[in-house]
């Protein structure tokens, strides 16, 4: 194969007879690499976010081995390196606090080392965007291999979906319909194999959108983590990245504005996580693609949710895989004329060439466009005096009758205040109230936790109330549901109007008009603003850096100084 790029970047380290080349090669040889591997062949990084503290990524050690085999077979030189892993289920205060930190590590690890191309191994929610963002700023050839979803859970003859059924079961326990013993017995049944959440949570969403953007091989999103076919995909990804280096197929040629538009449409079709809004915004910032929050309204409008997976629907990722997976969804969208079919993907073919002839194998799991789960599945962006820079909601997870609603605010100043008072029998609240939670935004919490789908007051749950309008500057787990308005920007902690809401204020929401209005006169809001005190910033450490740098949700919560494509050039060597 003729190379578009010769010599390769790694030759600057490993080529020639200078002292520096001696040092770079000699130390690598202490691992048993034979001399011919330094002959100028592509050096491929395997960027692995495996960690035992990130259970969802547990399979990546095994998959790395299969990527390595593929790289060797294609004549490349594989070098695996670890990066900070982000386990959604363990990390405090929230894994989101560290997405940008991991992205820094990915970017700098790639740039600083003799790497020509990279295979990104990620799975759990924040690991996928972190690895994509970091690699995108370097803009070398790269592709993603996902950890893949867990097998379906089952308990007492009932299907259990990751996350989604935790919310349901915990509400049932609080309402007294199941015992604490039953509740804890469901734990092992829910997570019965390695892999990411088996619902259409953030991990599955990001895997699906990565496939829709063409930054993975076809089929990557849905193959179960433990299925042998995922090993095959890993092997083939290893083979392919070597060719991508020869072809100089950099990330920016894949992650175009049209690819992001395809991701918006795909997100609507799968009923994807609200977190995708933040992650795609941040990724677009890295590749310098113009991409606005309102693009979600414009481009995703009238795209139905056709994938019947929890939390919006009934099935799980294993069912999705058996129904044809993301390729089948892309086929449906292509047939409906909703995708840019000519977008290039990492295998060198277009989205249309890869997916245009795929068969949908189960019309219940991946429904026809004419019989969707939700007619308009896109993310709705709301604006108004309560959210001048926007807020979002996910119609497929909401109650239709609450999408237009007017009610009195019941305000919680922060998450501690919420926990202290939500089950107070004297809390003045009814099902028409609007629950407002402040100070859970990117800077306020800090890290913007997934608490926006705050549980309902116990006394209303016991009356049988199942949903209420909830508004916050927080995020929501991709596995959660409800009429929940999230990502209010600017957040309360920087003095956004959300900070000024008081108990009893009337709030009206109209999803069809994209509006969210705090019915308080401007003069009164100005009076309240004059009395508002900003929180004291953290004194030092990463938390201080985070607080100084973090952008608001509508800009993807990246760090201001990390936006952009810096490339992979390094000016100096130490030898
Ligand atoms: Fe890791 Fe859901 S908690 S994928
Ligand atoms: Mg999640």
From TrEMBL:
Q: Name one Pfam family in it.
A: ILVD_EDD_N
Please name the InterPro entries in this protein's record: Dihydro-acid_dehy_C, DiOHA_6PGluconate_deHydtase_CS, ILV_EDD_C, ILV_EDD_N, IlvD/EDD_N, Sugar_Degrad_Dehydratases
Q: Which top EC class is given?
A: lyase
What domain of life? Bacteria
On whether Zinc is a keyword of this UniProt record, the answer is: no
> What range(s) does the Dihydroxy-acid/6-phosphogluconate dehydratase N-terminal domain occupy?
41-354
Q: Does the keyword RNA-binding apply?
A: no
E.C. designation(s)? 4.2.1.9
Q: Name one GO molecular function term.
A: iron-sulfur cluster binding
Q: Which residues form the Dihydroxy-acid/6-phosphogluconate dehydratase C-terminal domain?
A: 364-557
- Coiled-coil intervals, chain numbering: none
Record's keyword terms, sorted: Iron, Iron-sulfur, Lyase, Metal-binding
Cross-referenced NCBIfam families:
PRK06131.1 (NF004784), PRK13017.1 (NF009560)
By sequence similarity, the record places it as follows:
Belongs to the IlvD/Edd family.
Q: What is this protein called?
A: Dihydroxy-acid dehydratase
